């Protein structure tokens, strides 16, 4: 079974480069399950239902988010509009599961493969957010253990949206042998540490950003340099130059959920 995870889609350049490549990547690698992190998809800050629909049309099965999930207000009612047992598109957009209780949306989605030789196979996607240098989250480690105790699928992919590399690495070891993959997002720079851990969990500290790389993590570099050089505030705008799609391709045994390989993907225009 092949799983494609697309790193943080940043603004219109990110959506454009994903649109350019996603079809042939999915076809070339016989992808069964496509997951996209979309928390920066709307101008670098949040995602709207309309943009989410566009990405679903491109082939996304499940979408994950992070600390920018509430930046577009229209998403709140959208996420709150579906019951837990729904498989509608709104139910397949996740927000971090370890946010404060009572917030709209869900942090876990359990579904089945829609097409291909693995059609009908159960899977789960879990969205977590780090606690180090982040706000508004509860303990992701014990939270993950509690959530996994209720998931029946063998194939489980975790998006760990976190700032500190140490926390991400620790989560990889914490969940080794318990999930198919632990994939880091949020820092927008792809790391070269992808590997399958001894227990059969594919791991990468950060998948990277799908967006403009002639930038400072997606933002117009001149605006960021101005803030660093002067200390003065200013409005950040998404950059446009040199868009690239960053993704991770994971192969796993559908019967056990154990990963057998992980590969970095980075493609430009």
Q: Can you summarize this structure?
A:
This protein is of the alpha/beta class.
Map the helices and strands:
Elements: E1 2-6, H1 11-28, E2 33-37, H2 49-57, E3 62-64, H3 74-80, E4 108-112, E5 122-129, H4 140-148, E6 155-161, H5 165-175, E7 181-185, E8 195-196, E9 202-204, E10 211-212, H6 221-230, E11 243-252, E12 259-268
Parallel strand pairs: 1-2, 2-3, 5-6, 6-7, 7-9
Antiparallel strand pairs: 1-11, 4-5, 8-9, 10-11, 11-12
What is the CATH class?
Alpha Beta
- Helix/strand structural class: alpha/beta
* Total beta strand runs: 12
Regions with little confidence, pLDDT below 50 for 5+ residues: none
**CATH arch. level architecture:** 4-Layer Sandwich
Order of helices and strands: EHEHEHEEHEHEEEEHEE
> Biggest β-sheet, characterized?
6 strands, mixed
Q: Can you describe this structure?
A:
Strand 8 (195-196) and strand 9 form a beta hairpin. It contains six helices and twelve strands. The chain is α/β, with parallel strands linked by helices and 269 residues long. The protein is globular. The model has no long low-confidence stretch (mean pLDDT 96). The protein has a single domain, classed as 4-Layer Sandwich (Purple Acid Phosphatase, chain A, domain 2), CATH 3.60.21.10. The two termini are 28 Å apart. The strands form two sheets. Strands 1, 2, 3, 10, 11 and 12 form a six-stranded mixed sheet that branches. It has a six-stranded mixed sheet with strand order 4-5-6-7-9-8, with helices on one face.
Descriptors for this entry?
269 residues; Purple Acid Phosphatase, chain A, domain 2; 6-stranded mixed β-sheet; single chain; alpha/beta; 12 strands
């Amino acid at each position: 079974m092949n799983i494609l995870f697309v790193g943080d889609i940043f603004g219109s350049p990110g959506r454009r480069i994903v649109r350019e490549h996603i079809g042939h990547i999915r076809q070339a690698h016989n992808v069964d399950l496509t997951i996209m992190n979309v928390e920066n998809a709307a101008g670098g800050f949040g995602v709207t239902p309309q943009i989410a629909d566009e990405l679903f049309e491109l082939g996304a099965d499940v979408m994950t988010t992070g600390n920018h999930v509430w930046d577009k207000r229209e998403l709140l009612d959208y996420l709150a509009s579906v019951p837990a047992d729904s498989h509608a598109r709104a139910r397949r957009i996740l927000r971090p599961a370890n946010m404060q209780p009572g917030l709209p949306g869900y942090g876990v989605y359990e579904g089945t493969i829609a097409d291909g030789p693995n059609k009908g196979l159960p899977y789960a996607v879990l969205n977590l957010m780090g606690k180090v240098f982040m706000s508004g989250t509860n303990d992701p480690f014990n939270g993950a253990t509690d959530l996994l105790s209720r998931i029946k699928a063998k194939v489980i992919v975790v998006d760990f949206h976190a700032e500190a590399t140490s926390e991400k690495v620790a989560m990889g070891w914490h969940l080794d042998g318990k999930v198919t993959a632990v994939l880091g997002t949020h820092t927008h720079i792809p790391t070269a540490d992808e590997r399958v851990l001894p227990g059969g969990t594919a791991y990468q500290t950060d998948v990277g950003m799908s967006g403009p790389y002639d930038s400072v993590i997606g933002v117009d570099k001149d605006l960021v340099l101005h803030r660093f050089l002067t200390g003065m505030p200013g409005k950040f705008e998404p950059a446009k130059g040199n868009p690239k799609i960053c993704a991770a391709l994971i192969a796993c045994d559908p019967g056990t959920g154990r990963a057998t390989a992980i590969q970095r993907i980075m493609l430009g225009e």
